[in-house]
Design brief:
Layout (H helix, E strand, L loop, with lengths): L4 H22 L4 H9 L3 H25 L9 H17 L3 H12 L5 H23 L7 H17 L4 H21 L1 H6 L1 H22 L3 H25 L8 H16 L8 H14 L3 H39 L6
Length: about 325
């Protein structure tokens, strides 16, 4: 990717945002207690999560290969995995650059176009977003998350309202209906604006990405990989809980909640999720679970840094593997006609 002044300033700005979030997360930490907690962790469980994260990258590469089959059936598992592992490595340098890098790597083989591979990213992101939404739904019905919402948010709000929840529901429904008719009546004017056009493109992309999952040649393999990937993410959170001292009261449902929060931490556009992941996970563990701030930060740190180490190792190995294979392909003599 060509380095321009705009990209450089964007890099510096996002790096500054990561630094601010890290400072906000660690500003009140008790460092003595922090290092003691890290020293008491069972690192065999952490090693298991790192191995499983590497397997997740392999599954993501295979799933991506299935999505690229309409473009080319010649793309190998080795190529899709290497490109995906390097994608994570690129995101540590510049957020959101990984998708461009991995699509460019596949396009450089001549087996698929860059535009075509970039289109598969939309499908992938749509289904990952759907999985996160589905993971959130059980949290509203059972567990500490529901209790936190009821006790800390809904109950105080209900007590302060001059009318009942029934009338609040009626008002919200009326507003939604009115908003629907307003958007429908002025849809052409809204579509003519830059923000409106972008929102419509985003929505259409989600709809098309969802439909594309059912039109795939190997759709059941795609759905199977998607399920395995997100179950594995949940297992990583659960195993981190097992590794951590003082989290015996946490359950599989809590691991599901932490998986969702951690996913949001990676979505924030900062290098490698630094700062954003630590801040969001800590701000979850402290008020909802009653953890001390040092304990929450230690949990977020061990969870995040183990993923970073795994991404660095797998990414660098994949980068070297790609370079070696690409060099071998270039050195193959052309057949004389």
């Amino acid at each position: 990717m060509k380095i321009t002044l705009k990209r450089f300033l964007k890099y510096v700005l996002l790096l500054g945002l990561a630094a601010v979030l890290l400072w906000l997360a660690f500003r009140k930490v008790d460092w003595g207690e922090f290092w003691t907690i890290l020293g008491d962790c069972n690192y065999w469980w952490i090693l298991a999560t790192m191995v499983l994260q590497a397997v997740i990258t392999l599954m993501r590469g295979n799933r991506w290969r299935i999505m690229m089959r309409p473009l080319s059936k010649e793309i190998s598992r080795h190529e899709s995995y290497d490109a995906y592992a390097v994608c994570y490595l690129a995101n540590m340098a510049l957020p959101r650059s990984g998708e461009v890098v991995r699509c460019g790597m596949i396009a450089s083989t001549g087996k698929a176009t860059f535009e075509g591979t970039l289109g598969t990213v939309v499908i992938e992101r749509t289904w990952d977003l759907l999985c996160i939404v589905l993971a959130v739904l059980p949290l509203f019905f059972v567990g500490r998350f529901r209790d936190f919402l009821v006790e800390k948010m809904f109950a105080p709000a209900a007590e302060s309202m001059p009318f009942s929840w029934f009338w609040l529901g009626v008002i919200v429904l009326a507003v939604l209906v009115a908003l629907f008719f307003v958007l429908r009546a002025f849809r052409h004017r809204i579509a003519a604006t830059k923000a409106g056009a972008a929102l419509i493109r985003f929505w259409k992309g989600l709809v098309e990405g969802f439909k594309a999952g059912f039109r795939m040649e190997r759709k059941w393999a795609f759905f199977g990989y998607t399920l395995l990937i997100w179950v594995s993410y949940w297992l990583c959170c659960l195993w981190t809980i097992y590794a951590f001292p003082g989290t015996e009261s946490l359950t599989g449902l809590d691991a599901l909640f932490l998986m969702v929060v951690g996913s949001l931490g990676w979505v924030v556009p900062v290098q490698g999720g630094f700062g954003a992941y630590h801040f969001l996970v800590t701000m979850t563990l402290v008020p909802i679970y009653g953890f001390a701030e040092s304990t929450g930060l230690a949990f977020a740190t061990i969870s995040h840094e183990s993923q970073i180490v795994q991404m660095l190792v797998c990414g660098l190995v994949a980068w070297a593997s790609w370079a070696i294979c690409h060099r071998k392909n270039k050195k193959q003599p052309t057949q004389q006609i």
